[in-house]
Amino acid sequence: MTMNRRDFLKVATASSGGLLVSLNLAACAGTPTGFSEDSGSWQPDAWLELSQDNQVYFTLARVEMGQGAYTGLTTLIAEELGVAPEHIQVRFSPVGKDYINPAIGLQMTGGSTSLATSWQPLRVAGASAREMLVSAAARVWKVAPGDCSVSNGQVLHPNGSDALKFGQLVELAAKETVPDEPALKPAEEWQYIGKSRGRLDAMAKSTGTAQYGIDVELPGMVYAVVTRPPRYGAKLASFDATQALAMPGVLDVFAIDRGVALVADKYWRARKAQQTLKIEWNNEEALAVSNASVMEFYRKAAEEDPGVNEREEGDPEGAIESATRVVEVAYEQPYLAHAAMEPMNATAVYHGDRMEVWAPTQAPDLGRIAVARVTDLSPGDVDIHTTFMGGGFGRRLTQDFIEEAAAVAYQVRKPVKLIWSREEDTRHGLYRPAMLHRMKASISGDQLTGWHHQIVGPQILDWYVRNAAPAQYPWAPKFLYDTLGKVGLMAEGMATPKDVSAIEGAVDYPYQVPNIEVRHTHVDPGVPITWWRSVGYSHNGFAVETFMDELAHELGQDPYQFRRGLLQNEPRHLAVLERAAELGNWSAPVPEGRARGIAVHRSFGTYVAQVVEASIEGGNIRVHRVACAVDCGEVVNPDIVKDQIESGVIFGITAALYGNVTFENGAVKESNFHDYQVLRNHQRPEVEVAIIESREMPTGVGEPGVPPVIPALGNALFALTGQRQRALPLKA
Predict the structure, then answer these.
(1) pTM
(2) What is the per-residue pLDDT across 690-725, written as a single tens digit (0 to 9) for each?
(3) Less Cβ crowding at N or C end of the chain, within 10 Å?
(4) How far apart are CA 577 and CA 704, in angstroms?
């Protein structure tokens, strides 16, 4: 079969642009507006672009902070479109309603939702484009579309020898009807999904060409640092910048809402001059808390207020009254910092009627609100350019660093890069909340008959709603921002989603116990908090799985068999528990001087069980090995799953051994990695991950590796020493 020159030119050269296929994601509020002759494109909700020069571009609606979204989501498009993932150019999305995360209602990356929310819509998008390209080629060849096939970015003729590249077909394909229900490839035909393939961003990150927020450079850029009050809640009283302004390169010093900003032509000049500022703070409204006072506050609140009943089954009080034994314990967890390797930063430039911001943010739509708060601009006047980020862990969901950069750029009228120092990152961040858990179990004979869990502590939405509520109504005037936040809190659980940050991992207690009660006593000591990797699952996982271990020993049962017996109606919990026990040699003798602990936990829809083998050497806790089993449904890239579970293990061990933000009179004591430690490479345990095969819908893996490792390590230490530790961090 041959194609005449006239027909080929119609296909290959008539278009002025490319084919832009609307993904029409489930998150989108709108639909495509149709093909535009002027631009040669469709106006989409989210974009897959195919150009005449045979390039394929995918606009990534979720940020890449190391969790693998860049590779995983591109793989979904690649599989259905028929193009190798490495041949697709990935672009970060702009801010827009088309890129809202449907699981959250904001343009946010978090909650291990990226793959779960994209699994179906991105595959449908790729399949729709594929079918339109095939249909266009079939019209050219005058053959049935079903007789054509797609491979490596081209449509193949039924004769097996002729082919048309996607770039040759884009204009004709743009005129095809978008299929209502395109046929998705069956699993047995997958070329990329489920296969171990390298990360698409690995080369750029390895060669230093990937642009992180801290790498952004603009012509004429200056640098800013901000001095914030040592105590939360303190206000600026006065400052003297005489000495700083006389130093080389210093351009300006002025007050902003969050402290005193200093601007210089170079970063280190700004840092050096910052040390000469003489600042007086008004501490009338400043916090005066300490770690001890927070826990005392929690204990008093727990006694006075039993809290809201979040789950009740059976007759918990009756189970206590008829019990032969009642076990009561309490667990305490401290504030935790995120300690992301890339400190907070943002670059902003004010153009008079618009502002551009380059930032490593997990929530660019909230970044717009942050800018609007400190300028005369509306959210629609703000462009947020998202970059790669050197760790997020929830810290970059809060936009204080963007707010500061915008406030400075608005005043100096030059491109400004604002960078937090490591010390500022540690002392002026927002933290995983400290929590208290009061546990009670009723036992009759050798049976666990009742489970009571009282959670005491704050809710994250109280701190986050300030910018989250306005982001959902970007048309609202700024004087309503605070009102929207208050309304959002009042309507929580009714007009707005219920805040489960304090109770997740507790209300979904999986064990078959006839009488269950879970309550939350909502108290807030005033320390700024935000999401932290695995959020409420991190502290509830520790309380639940440590108490389960205590109850196993109380009943004289093996901790693994005790859990196994109570999970017979939970097949996915049971499968990971049994696989982890097998992988971790649970029934085999333990090497001398070591002990094993076990835990299982479901978070963000993913089931993870872990066996930790640990010892105490030279007065220090050493984790030798962690065996993990994970069920995250359908797997897109096994290597990324293993990487993320291993990463969660390291993150969790760090928290278990070292995590503790110390407050003294309202100020944070720790400052850098010497006193807020992270696990070093020589301390890294052997981690083995087994993935349970599943055809269930895929779930996230960025966070679920964290919750079980902390109690599993604590349980191993109990098996080793006979001493139960009920407060974190763990001690040798």
Answers:
(1) 0.94
(2) 999 999 999 999 999 999 999 999 999 999 999 999
(3) N
(4) 14
